[in-house]
Amino acid sequence: MSLIETFFNWSVFIDALPALLEGLGITVMLGAVSIVAGTASGLAMALLRLYGPAPLRWLARVYIDAFRSIPLLVLLVLVYYALPFVGVRFSSFISAALAISLVSCAYSAEIFRAGIQAVPKGQFEAAQAIGLGFGSSMRYVILPQALRIVVPPLTSNCINVLKDTALASVVAMPDLLKQATQAQALAANPTPLIGAALLYLLLLLPLVRLVSYFESRHPSR
Amino acid sequence: MPTPLIQIRQLQKSFGAVSVLHGIDLDVEAGEVLVVVGPSGSGKSTLIRCINLLEEYQGGEVLVDGVRVQKGPQLVTVRTGVGMVFQSFNLFAHLSALDNVALGPLRVHGLARSAALARAADVLAQVGMAEHSHKFPAELSGGQQQRVAIARALAMQPKVLLFDEPTSALDPEMVGEVLDVMQQLTKTGVTMVIVTHEMGFARRVAHRVVFMEAGRIIEQGAPDQFFGNPRELRTQAFLKAVLQH
Q1: What is the DSSP letter of B122?
Q2: 0.90 cut: is pTM over it?
């Protein structure tokens, strides 16, 4: 009985719900911005890593290795708490979006690189042979095929990005987790935390199912 | 005497330390059908891949219609004038047969979409693939894919067509349909350079046959002379081996 009142307290939940939904909105917004920025920059980084001039290729590799190695939480704290010492001050939203996108860019770049490299060499040659230049070959021949290959791992990466947004609560970002911990403190009851966990599940379970669906579907060729 | 359409002078190519072409000299006249034969690894494919710079070469030069084949802005001009058909077809897997053929006219020649599709439909009909134009490569047999690949090359209205062992990856029963299309093409007057192991076909359609071994041209001549009365011992040995069965 007291267990239910402690963890599943209905009136506490109803009181906390507006704040939780507000937090969910911010979580989704932060996730969306980071996914778009991380994926787009990841594609550019992959192209640089594969086809850029030698120094840029090398820099891209260093970037990808570095940002896949650094813990996101450490990067986030650096951006939010360390950069102000050199006069660079971002809001908590910008700090979080920046840190998450920087890391997501590195992971997306590796995914895109694998996808592009999985397109058979003959496709490049056939595109060149009809006179398509590098840009057109990429745009009309290679990337359309590479994108199909990377949809499952890319979706998987998007799930990770959405989950990682919870770290933003550390830099005072009023996201879903932060709203939940505040409501929990206010009500002196952990029900809002349970509510937040359920909302995360509702948000992410369909995406996880989607990845499984993509992975089970046989490629069209 | 008109200038040859393709001029190859002292062409040298190596993969790392391994030299595969040792100074090839070869001219191909406009309208000529040239067949290149020789054992595997003799450099035949590498030779024709140098003509549109799918392989970069280290020495000598290749001219197509007077334009030097090298990296730079003129390379697109060369490549649009040189069609290529690959052993493994290399059709664009994400595009229908029609879109495969229309892509070059659309994106390289800059035709309007309707004009590019009309041209694609024309050349697909020419290779007998009109009724399959909506299908994707995975839905086509090897022979059908290769015919679409020939159409894709033809759609660029090239001066010369290169064939890199176009029937070697085909099931035996599909070789005929591809060779038939190629034989029809020889009557259109387009210049063709064909690397093949199909000796009967070579004898039927070639104006000239070139025999390569170990990165060198050993012998060349008219098909009747080449197959009937080869001069070089190595040519005789090669023909004896491939024609025995």
Answers
A1: H
A2: no
Stretch 111-170 of chain B: residues touching chain A, C-beta under 8 Å: 136-138, 149, 152-153, 156
Contact call for A129 and B54, based on CB within 8 A: yes
**Of the candidates A120, A130, A220, which has its C-beta nearest B138's C-beta?**
A220
Residue A146: phi, psi to the nearest 5? -65, -40
Residues B62/B237, Cβ–Cβ less than 8 Å: no
CA distance A18 to A33: 23
Check if the interface score ipTM surpasses 0.85: yes
Of the candidates B86, B88, B104, the beta carbon closest to that of A131 is on: B104
Name the minimum distance, in Å, from the CA of B163 to any CA of chain A. Answer: 12
Distance to chain A for B50, nearest Cα, Å = 11
Interchain CB distance below 8 Å, B79 and A128 = yes
Residue for token pair 């937040």: A196
Say if the Cβ atoms of B103 and A131 lie within 8 Å: no
Question: Would you call B155 helix, strand, or coil by DSSP?
Answer: coil
Cα gap A78→A60, rounded to integer Å: 21
B136: chain A residues, CB-CB within 8 Å: 220-221
Report pLDDT digits (tens) over B198-230.
Answer: 999 999 999 999 999 999 999 999 999 999 999
In angstroms, the CA B187 to CA B168 distance is: 23
pLDDT tens digit sequence for B140-169: 999 999 999 999 999 999 999 999 999 999
Cross-sheet strand order for the sheet of B160-164 = B82-85, B160-164, B191-195, B33-37, B208-213, B216-221
Residue B85: strand, helix, or coil: strand
Query: HSE (CB half, 13 Å, CA atoms) of B97?
Result: 28
Q: Is B106 exposed, middle or buried (0-12, 13-18, 19+ CB in 10 A)?
A: buried
Alpha carbon A79 to its chain centroid, in Å, reads: 17
Test mutation, B90, B135, B152, chain A, max A CBs within 10 A: B90
